[in-house]
Amino acid sequence: MRSTAPRNNKLKPSSNLIMNGSVRVRVIRTLLAIQNGQSLASVLDPLLNSLHDGDKGFAHALLLTTLRQWYALERLLDSLADNSIDEKEVRTTIQVGLTQLLYLQVADHAAIHETVEAAKEIEFAHATGLINAILRKVAKNPSKFRKKCDKKHSLPNWLAYQLKQDWSEQYDDLMQGLRQPAPMFLRVNTAVTSVEDYQQALVEFEVEADLVELTSGLQLDNSSDSATSNSIVTKGLRLHQSTAVNALPQFAEGAASVQDRHAQLAAPLIHNALLNKLSVKNDDAEDDMDTSNNEIRILDACAAPGGKLAHWLELISSNESSLFHVKQNHESVSLVSKVKITAIDNEAPRIERIHTNLQRLNLSQHDLQQAERNIELNIVCADATTWQGAGKKKSKLVFDAILLDSPCTATGVIRRHPDISILRTEEDVDQTALLQADILHNLWPQLKVGGYLLYVTCSILKQENVEQMQDFMTHYNNVVAVEFSDDCNWGIEQAIGRQCLPIDSLGGDGFYYALLHKTAE
User: Fold this and answer.
1) CA separation (Å) from 169 to 48, 164, 165, 174?
2) Buried b (16+ CB within 10 A) or exposed e, 23-38
3) What digits encode the pLDDT tens for the residues 33-45?
4) CB-facing half-sphere around the CA of 338: CA atoms within 13 A
5) Is the pTM of the predicted complex or chain greater than 0.90?
């Protein structure tokens, strides 16, 4: 899921991150870079690549844990200091020391001595006395200070306040859940192997994993005046422990992908809706497919890094759920002769990531042609707020289905990207909601009558999700929100769509889903 909230204008990204000195010094410099506007994704690899293998695990744990507990540590630090500590470098150094004492069980003498030495290395020797005094005070009773740190949330106050407004009943669980590491999930490429067979292959590689099933019930229209429940079962694997991908069987050959369990819902939802559209007889001429060649067009908007696109391609290519082989009246029929897929994103480096991911999964255009799948894949670098799929053609009714993996503040994936709580601002939410609305209003007119648009975010803020949908629907008289039926075993029902929250240590990230159906004017 893409995180595209505007960067805090008050923060300027550092230029070159200096990676020398002790492990703690490098972690401190990395934290300073994040506070100056750089993302964790951009600084993590430089940090780890600068270290010997034996130091990488400690550095990773120290960095991620400090970020997850950042605001709780800040409040603890303020309560321990007699006077305000304004120097960012000194505050960061102390927080790194506190993380070692309270969360990583580093020996007192090592945590204190090495952190004080780190202050000298970054040329803040004048603060070593203060740093030493605070850390020694905490070391005398770490359980007391750990309880104090864990008592409240570890988010910026503006975000905690908004989440309490949005999720009062789930607030306490949510505040603690966002501070925990997220589990690792795998999506198995069912065009290659079954989920059960891959789970068995993991056992042979001494990787333990549980089968996770999510059921999605959709009230899809089967005629002009009726709807029936359509149930979809999505299977994935949850690893008992996070594992390097090179330790997974046939990962390089495309047998599996790392993808959160809730992110794995996107492709099956829009794919099932598309299957329903193609199966329904519709007399409206505007809803008719081009029967001369029986081809359809679908769009993945804001597609990078390509996980959901790959999943959709896997479903289209699968013999069980393919658009080319559908069972109707106990017979296998083909609903289409050709599928034209367009994927867009507005940054060239992100486009490259799509190509890289599809190549690993053997789903590039060349691979699809070699497999004799009549699928045309076109990946375009374009701005979703203005891009027109019809080009210069008169008709703007282009797509049978649209997957909009919308830009968002990514507050639902803070467990995986704890830098988000530092980088996001309250103003970002308003700006992102406006961007989402611009994209929706540009894409909706390009959807054919009878088509479906799946709106997805990895945000847990209602302004970007259900409130965005409610506002959008006031602008059109040809949009109907598809209801999720009672057999859904994920998420919380909203006025429109469903919301997943990252409150379970074994569960998925925070995602929002709304499926919109386009009717005749």
Assistant:
1) 39, 8, 10, 9
2) bbbbbbbbbbbbbebb
3) 999 999 999 999 9
4) 10
5) yes
